[in-house]
Amino acid sequence: MKDLSRYQRQIILPEIGEEGQKRISESHVAIVGLGALGSVSANLLARAGVGKLRLIDRDFLDLNNLQRQVLFDEEDVRENLPKAVAAERKLSKINSEIKIEAIPADLNLETVDELLKEVQLVVDGTDNFETRFLINDFSLRGRIPWIYGGAVGTRGLAYVILPGEGPCLRCLFEEAPKPGEFETCDVTGILAPVSHWIASFQAMETIKILAGRKESADRRLWRIDLWKNEWKALEVSAFVKELCSGCKMRDYPYLTRERGSRTVTLCGRNAVQILQNLKGTINFQNLARKLSPSGAVKYNDYLLKASISPYEITVFPNGRAIIQGTQDEAEAKSVYAKYIGG
Length: 342
What we know:
The protein is α/β, with parallel strands linked by helices. It folds into two domains: about 5-255, 3-Layer(aba) Sandwich (Rossmann fold), CATH 3.40.50; about 260-340, TATA-Binding Protein (2-Layer Sandwich). It has twelve helices and 14 strands. The protein has helices spanning about 10, 15-25, 35-50, 75-80, 85-95, 110-115, 130-140, 170-175, 185-190, 190-210, 285-290, 330-340; strands spanning about 30, 50-55, 100-105, 120-125, 145-150, 155-160, 220-225, 230-235, 260-265, 270-275, 295-300, 305-310, 310-315, 320-325. The strands form two sheets. An eight-stranded mixed β-sheet has the order 3-2-1-4-5-6-7-8, sandwiched between helices. Strands 9-10-14-13-12-11 form a six-stranded antiparallel β-sheet, covered by helices on one side. Helix 3 (about 35-50) runs parallel beside helix 10. The longest helix is centred in the middle third of the chain and has 19 residues, at about 190-210. The mean pLDDT is about 90.
């Protein structure tokens, strides 16, 4: 039996107790995205004694990450480490008694079954709605709970999804936002306390579920604006849609080619093409306004081109894009998520 003495301050809580701590220590959680949200929740869950943490992130560290991503330091940036690897190094020093698995990879249609196999719960630390809807479909199909979280600017959202016990993400949002309609940290900015609050909520709800106290999980959609000191908990239990294809019809389009994107490396061009299954068209005027602080932008009726060093991004009305400046498909998807959104 594991020595649980390091968790004594949790164990003496009647909400947890020794039995709850044992459950936590035998649990397996995946954290998808190790940025502003995921680095905080991973830190908290490792310290809480979650028995196995699977850390999934496709990105490498950048100096501007240190403003809000608490697991990393300047040495990690100098070493050009993948976020998942740097997080695993730090967390192993914090708690050597748990198993931590670093996976510097992209979670997508081809990898989702392998990367999320055998996990009991998924924590959302992603930066785009396509991946969130993919997690949502995986969660519905396997009846695995997951904790949605998002933060940008001074605002944040958080929600617990328990399949079969309330609305799923598609019930609340129906479709992922079109590219260009979704704010991103790289375009809008973000304050660290916002992401830390959302991630702390995610970690708290994760601990409740793992400890066997699912009935205590907060089933409301939380919406905050820390700059304005606004805190709203929205009752969403009635939002379960009778025609939700996931909840009611067991149709999972993000686990097929019906939704989501795919990438193609363009030989000899140092570029990657991202193909979208998008309904409708992109508003280039709005997208240009968002991107202009980041670099030179020009557009016509047929395409929008943004030069954001070291990349040149070309976007077409149907969401298709060419990211020039890399041949790495995961890097191209990260650039798309950072600047185009969706």
